[in-house]
């Protein structure tokens, strides 16, 4: 009679269903994780607008990341420095363009009075002696009657000389050594004389009309 406990050695022992399920789940989980890693790496590389990052792909794929050499680091720093310098130069150029094209910028203007018409010189000098433009017509009438605005006007009956007919003409040396030939020097002397003696050119002209001299 055969022994009921005997089991032939060539048969496989029954597999515990619980253990088999655990093992299969672990295998499937590993495959899923690996597939997810590949999908993420592919998404990083193929996503439009995202720069390729070899280190990130290498890490996601389980590969060692590439380390920059000293030369590569120096090259990147040099490129960044050049880019910064270019931006500063462009900003400076734009600033200069804006300033040169800006409206309302005051501009200085100088005029050579040594060769200008004596009347032009007188107009320019009036404000320096406290006179406004309204006084010019009186000054014009006064000097026109005295000398005709002639720098070398010489009164034959007296020693009066020049545009303001200074008496004597050498008095105008107080305004400058070139008093005999320079219209600006003569007018400066004449305006100072009018201010100190009559107050304004119009007052001097009024006196001249009543007394025939001033």
Q: How much strand?
A: under 5%
- The Cα radius of gyration reads 52 Å
The run of helices and strands is: HHHHHHH
Query: How large is the count of helical segments?
Result: 7
Largest beta-sheet characterization: none
Number of strands: 0
Query: Residue share in helices?
Result: 40-55%
> What overall form do the CA principal axes indicate?
rod-shaped
Low-confidence stretches: 6-15, 17-61, 102-109
Cα separation of the termini: 170 Å
The chain-level mean pLDDT equals: 73
Structural class: mainly alpha
Descriptors for this entry?
single chain, 214 residues, mainly alpha, 7 helices, 53% helix
How does this model look, in words?
- 53% of the residues lie in helices and 0% in strands.
- Mean pLDDT is 73; it is low at 6-15, 17-61 and 102-109.
- It is an all-alpha fold and 214 residues long.
- The protein is rod-shaped and about 105 Å long.
- It has helices at residues 17-46, 54-60, 70-101, 118-125, 136-146, 183-197, 201-211.
- The relative contact order is 0.06.
């Amino acid at each position: 009679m055969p022994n009921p406990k005997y089991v032939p050695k060539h048969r496989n022992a029954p597999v515990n269903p619980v253990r088999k399920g655990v093992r299969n789940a672990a295998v499937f989980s590993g495959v899923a994780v690996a597939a997810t890693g590949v999908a993420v790496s592919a998404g990083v590389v193929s996503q439009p607008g995202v720069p390729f990052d070899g280190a990130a792909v290498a890490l996601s794929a389980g590969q060692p990341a590439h380390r920059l050499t000293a030369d590569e680091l120096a090259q990147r720093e040099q490129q960044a420095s050049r880019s910064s310098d270019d931006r500063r130069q462009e900003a400076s150029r734009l600033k200069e363009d804006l300033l040169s094209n800006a409206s309302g910028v005051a501009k200085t203007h100088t005029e050579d009075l040594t060769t200008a018409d004596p009347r032009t010189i007188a107009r320019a000098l009036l404000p320096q002696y406290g006179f406004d433009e309204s006084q010019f017509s009186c000054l014009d009438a006064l000097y026109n009657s005295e000398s005709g605005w002639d720098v070398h006007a010489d009164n034959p009956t007296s020693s009066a000389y020049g545009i303001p007919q200074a008496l004597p003409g050498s008095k105008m040396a107080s305004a400058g050594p070139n008093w005999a030939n320079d219209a600006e020097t003569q007018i400066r002397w004449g305006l100072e004389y009018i201010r100190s003696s009559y107050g304004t050119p119009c007052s001097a002209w009024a006196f001249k009309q009543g007394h025939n001299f001033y």
